[in-house]
Every structure is written in structure tokens, then in C-alpha cells.
Design a protein that fits this description.
Nucleotidyltransferase, domain 5, single chain, about 325 residues, alpha/beta, 2 domains, five-stranded mixed sheet, 9 helices, six-stranded mixed sheet, binds zinc ion
Length: about 325
């Protein structure tokens, strides 16, 4: 094993699939972005991704033997399939099998592949090279179009039985709330996701279009924007506190489109946390901004590197992630 040999990282989202060749230090050697095709046909969504993998591998000389995949969820890590809420054409879609075939098409042999949730990959990325690099325990969380997360506990990724642990966005913070897209009620995501904040602000007369404009209005002192964000971040704080309380977590690292706005998001979260993170062991819960632009991709790379023990975590430190797909 050439310890310097790079790996293929794949980060699957509802709007784009990011592909990158990444070395053992976390340097992106080459990358390719493929827009997520809108289709009911799963293979039609995969086709441009497979082509992207082929051209990326050809450009890099094709010497890839490990692959890490982070995908929007839910996923089924033991069976290597994904059913992302925001990619309707993929239900129990065999992404591991497909990625294996795409790599084999260039290299002539099957790569080893690990699949994890996108929130878990963001946690892994930030834990490896970002705001969590000096922490042994943290939740990595995204506040963006959706809300997700993943936990590293005592330097082990806690993936759960099927790879979906720590789904902060679909944790209910209001048992009497309206029905969520996931069919539960009163989920964090219903109140704190960017599009929900924008919709609430527009209903009160604010005239912007997206989450970025809303956070800019808030930063400029717009009262509607401030009020709506405060309301949404109270739900986020309740979800964060619930997660920290049941997992006994002392740090959250939060990234994603909305979180990039900084204090207008972080200040209300920290303020509302005082109402929810109240037991002594979570009373000092620290909320840190994420530091990486590509945390999901880097986390997928760390998964791939871990297959041969070259990553920041060893294979037995990925608790719940199957090795069934290893050759
Ligand atoms: Zn939900």
C-alpha cells in the first residue's frame, strides 16, 4: 500500500454531487461537480455521476482503490443503498454497487467503499481538519436548506444501526406541531431550515427571496428578519440541547449555508440554549462555527482512508458502519 495514494470522495446532495480525489493529508487533488439530475429514474440520476467518476479517475491516472461516500439521508449503510428525502428518484438506490462499477470501469478492479450519511461526513471532516480538530467529542451539524448532524464520541464516529444516528433535523421539538415531510410532527427542520425562515418572514411582509438575504436583513437590524430567525433558532436550540443531553456531548460544530451568516444565527442559538441545556453536564455546551468549505467531501475522504487505517479514525472507530462492501 502506497501511503500517499489518494482516495475518491463522493458527497451526494439534493442539488449537486461533488466528486474529488483527495490525498491522505486532506488536500483536494482534483474535483468535479455534477448537478443532481431531476428524474424519477434512478439510473438516469446516477448516469452523469458515473461519467464524472470516470473522467475524474482518468485525469488522475486511475489509481484509486478506496472510496468514501457521504449521502443525504436516509441511507442504509449495511445494504449500501440510499433513499434521500430530497432525491425522489432514489429509493433504496444501490449507490455502493454503482460506484464500485464506475471505478472498476476505469481501474479494472473493485474498490473498497464505505458509505455514511452526509451529516456524519461533515462531522468527520470538521473533526479531522476543521473546528473540531482538537476535540475528541463533538456533534457536527448543518443548518441550511435542511438540518442534519453526526456525532464523534471519544474519537469514534457513532453511525448507529443503519447509519442514520443523530438526525437532529427530524427530532421533534413540538409534539403538537404540524406534520413534517418525514411524517413525524414538530421537527426541528420545520422551524429552523432556511426555506421555512424565508417563508415565515415573507408572511410577515419581508420582501427578500432566500436565506442569505434574510440573514443580511437581520444583520442590518430588520425587525422581521431578527424575529423570524430568533423563532427558528429557538427550535434549533431545543434540538441541539436534546441531542447533547441524550448523547452527553459538550461541543457542537455548526456549518451550512445559513450558519455562514455568523452571529445572527449563533447568538440566538446560544441565548435559547440557556432554556434547554440545563442539566449540569450540558450547561457549558459550546457552539462553534464550522471552519471547512468542503467538510462533507473531506469527511468522505476520511472514511475512505480509514478502510486501510490511513485516516484520522481506524476502521473499528466507525461504530455501526459496515465493512460488508470491502473486498
Ligand atoms: Zn421530520
Amino acid at each position: 500500500m502506497d501511503t500517499a495514494q489518494p482516495v475518491l470522495a463522493i458527497d451526494v446532495g439534493g442539488t449537486k454531487v461533488a466528486l474529488a480525489i483527495i490525498d491522505a493529508e486532506g488536500t483536494i487533488v482534483d474535483d468535479e461537480i455534477v448537478p443532481t439530475a431531476k428524474s424519477d429514474d434512478g439510473d438516469a440520476i446516477w448516469a452523469p455521476v458515473g461519467e464524472g467518476i470516470a473522467s475524474l479517475l482518468q485525469r488522475c491516472g486511475g489509481d484509486i482503490t478506496e472510496v468514501g461516500i457521504g449521502s443525504a439521508g436516509p441511507i442504509d449503510a449495511p445494504s449500501g443503498t440510499v433513499s434521500p428525502v430530497n432525491i425522489g428518484g432514489w429509493r433504496e438506490y444501490p449507490i455502493v454497487q454503482q460506484a464500485k462499477a464506475a471505478v472498476r470501469g476505469v481501474t479494472g478492479s473493485d474498490p473498497a467503499i464505505l458509505l455514511a450519511g452526509d451529516g456524519h461526513c461533515i462531522a468527520l471532516g470538521e473533526h479531522w481538519l476543521g473546528a473540531g480538530r482538537d476535540l475528541d467529542t463533538m456533534v457536527g451539524m448543518v443548518i441550511s436548506t435542511g438540518i442534519g448532524g453526526g456525532a464523534v464520541i471519544k474519537n469514534r464516529l457513532f453511525a448507529g444501526t443503519t447509519g442514520n444516528a443523530v438526525h437532529v433535523g427530524h427530532t421533534s421539538v413540538n409534539a403538537w406541531g404540524e406534520k413534517c415531510v418525514c411524517n413525524s410532527h414538530g421537527c426541528v427542520e420545520m422551524y429552523a431550515r432556511g426555506p421555512a425562515l424565508v417563508e415565515a418572514a415573507r408572511a410577515k411582509g419581508w420582501r427578500g427571496d432566500d436565506g442569505k438575504a434574510l440573514t443580511e436583513s437581520a444583520a442590518a437590524g430588520d425587525e422581521i428578519a431578527l424575529e423570524v430567525i430568533d423563532h427558528g433558532m429557538r427550535a434549533a436550540a431545543a434540538g441541539i440541547a436534546a441531542t447533547a443531553t441524550y448523547l452527553d456531548i459538550d461541543h457542537f460544530v455548526i456549518g451550512g449555508g445559513l450558519a455562514k451568516a455568523g452571529p445572527v444565527i449563533f447568538d440566538p442559538i446560544r441565548r435559547h440554549l440557556r432554556d434547554f441545556a440545563v442539566l449540569p453536564y450540558v450547561a457549558d455546551l459550546q457552539i462553534l462555527p464550522a471552519e471547512l468549505e468542503n467538510a462533507g467531501l473531506l469527511g468522505a475522504a476520511s472514511l475512505a482512508l480509514s478502510i486501510t487505517g490511513r485516516g484520522p479514525l481506524q476502521p473499528d472507530e466507525l461504530i455501526g458502519l459496515t465493512d460488508a462492501e470491502r473486498p
